[in-house]
Design brief:
Order of helices and strands: HHEHEEHE
Strand order of the largest sheet: 1-3-2-4
CATH superfamily: Translation elongation factor EF1B, gamma chain, conserved domain
Strand content: 15-25%
CATH class: Alpha Beta
Number of domains: 1
C-alpha cells in the first residue's frame, strides 16, 4: 500500500465519496503492512466545553506531526451537549463487516455517527 496514494485520493474526492475514496481505500489496504485501530478517549467526562474539546484534538494531532509520513487518522467529536465524546482508533479486523462499516462512516463523517450528532471531525493525513 502506498499511503500517499490513499491520502491523495481521500483529499481530492469531492463527490461520490463512498464509491471513489472508500472503495479505493479497501482496494489499496494492505493488512500485512498496515493496521487500523479504534480508540476511545479516557476522560470524556472532562469534555464539557466544545471549543476546549476541539482544541484538545487539534493539539494532539499537532504533536503527532512526526508520524504524518507513516499514518492516517480520523478523530470524531460526538454529541451536541456536554460531555462530548472523542472517538479515535482500536485494532480493527478488516474481515468484520460491522467494523469495516464503522471505519467507512468515520472516513466520510457520517452523521449521525452511531446514533449521535457529529460536532466535529479532524483528519490527520
Amino acid at each position: 500500500m502506498i499511503l500517499d496514494d490513499w491520502k491523495r485520493l481521500y483529499s481530492n474526492t469531492k463527490t461520490n465519496f463512498r464509491e471513489a475514496a472508500i472503495k479505493g481505500f479497501w482496494e489499496m489496504f494492505d493488512p500485512e503492512g498496515y493496521s487500523l485501530w479504534f480508540c476511545n478517549y479516557k476522560y470524556n467526562d472532562e469534555n464539557t466545553v466544545s471549543f476546549v474539546t476541539m482544541n484538545k484534538v487539534g493539539g494532539f494531532l499537532q504533536r503527532m506531526d512526526l508520524a504524518r509520513k507513516y499514518a492516517f487518522g480520523k478523530m470524531l467529536i460526538i454529541g451536541n451537549e456536554p460531555p462530548f465524546k472523542l472517538y479515535e482508533w482500536r485494532k480493527v479486523d478488516p474481515s468484520d463487516e460491522v467494523q469495516k462499516e464503522r471505519v467507512n462512516q468515520m472516513f466520510e463523517d457520517h452523521e449521525p455517527f452511531e446514533g449521535e450528532t457529529l460536532l466535529d471531525a479532524k483528519c490527520f493525513k
